[in-house]
Specification:
The chain is an all-alpha fold and about 300 residues long. It is built from 14 helices and no strands. The chain has two domains: about 120 residues; about 180 residues, no CATH class.
């Protein structure tokens, strides 16, 4: 999965944990469906690998996101609700086994943490919480779709001094995610055959990441215990990349199964296309000039090629 987060931060140690999230969700889905001992061992080994990978901030977001998804998965599925006790016991056994295997890492970390100095503790930040810090350049949200819309990475975005390129997934993934979301909320009978709950969950997760990054509506989560220590704008992008990737897969599935109406496809396509000129107008002057000049050159070439036949 080549989300922008995994490309931009390919050298940071936290990716040793982040790249395991899709596999953990896949293994958890197998555990929900089969509830076999092999799946329990699989989950336990993955938990060990997560802790061995380091990155406590990413690990906290990793497990909070994954176990919340598994909870929603059981609650929203009628077949799983009838066997929720078996699902809960299987996950509990796998989690306990994984934590037991991980004690070789957890215990030394717990012993070291009270004696460590880090810039996440409120006492080292004048009483403020790292978790409530956020980016102020809301225009940087366009970089999710157009990574270089403001020019080079070190370009200043007025009126602030941060560029804000933390992640990207492109306009095609955005279009497919719109199809997935539109199909999930559609009133047509096909909605019952779609991944409605999963789609809404990952769409809500993607929206949460964007809102939390810019401190809109959900910034209070950064003041909760444990979460107050996280640098959300840095580590939260993992959840966005995974959510958009899954939404893109669901959207493509619905498109290939012909579950997407022509009306919905038209709306999603129109929104995707209209975002480009809007972002272009808000982008850097240099980028606008470069794009417009290339467009004018192509238009002139086209007219010159057509002109002899017209005359």
């Amino acid at each position: 999965m080549f989300g922008g987060y995994f490309i931009l931060f390919i050298t940071i140690p936290e990716l040793s944990v982040a790249v395991l999230l899709p596999l953990f969700l896949f293994a958890g889905e197998h555990l929900l469906r089969k509830r076999s001992y092999l799946c329990i061992v699989w989950i336990a080994v993955l938990i060990l690998m997560v802790f061995l990978g380091g990155g406590p901030e990413t690990t906290l977001l990793f497990f909070a996101f994954a176990y919340l998804y598994f909870f929603i998965r059981v609650v929203s599925d009628a077949a799983l609700r009838t066997v929720w006790r078996n699902c809960a016991s299987s996950f509990a056994l796998a989690t306990v086994a994984g934590l037991a295997l991980s004690m070789i890492v957890i215990l030394p970390f717990a012993e070291y943490l009270p004696h460590s100095w880090n810039n996440h503790e409120p006492t080292h930040l004048g009483g403020s919480f790292r978790g409530v810090e956020h980016d102020k350049t809301v225009l940087a949200a366009f970089t999710y779709l157009f990574p270089l819309v403001f020019g080079a990475v070190d370009t200043i975005v007025p009126p602030y001094v941060t560029y804000g390129l933390r992640n990207y997934f492109g306009i095609v993934s955005f279009f497919l995610a719109l199809l997935a979301l539109g199909t999930a909320v559609s009133r047509k009978p096909v909605r019952n055959e779609s991944f409605c709950a999963q789609t809404l969950f990952f769409a809500a997760a993607a929206l949460f990441v964007v809102l939390k990054r810019f401190g809109i509506a959900v910034n209070w989560i950064g003041a909760l215990p444990f979460f107050r220590l996280l640098d959300f704008p840095k580590y939260n992008e993992l959840l966005l990349s995974v959510s958009i990737a899954i939404l893109s897969g669901i959207g493509l599935h619905q498109l290939l199964r012909r579950n997407v109406s022509l009306h919905l496809r038209t709306i999603a396509l129109a929104i995707s296309f209209l975002l480009f000129p809007f972002a272009l107008l808000r982008g850097s002057k240099a980028l606008r000039k470069a794009t417009l000049s290339r467009t004018l050159i192509r238009a002139c070439r086209c007219w010159l090629s057509v002109l002899p036949s017209v005359c």
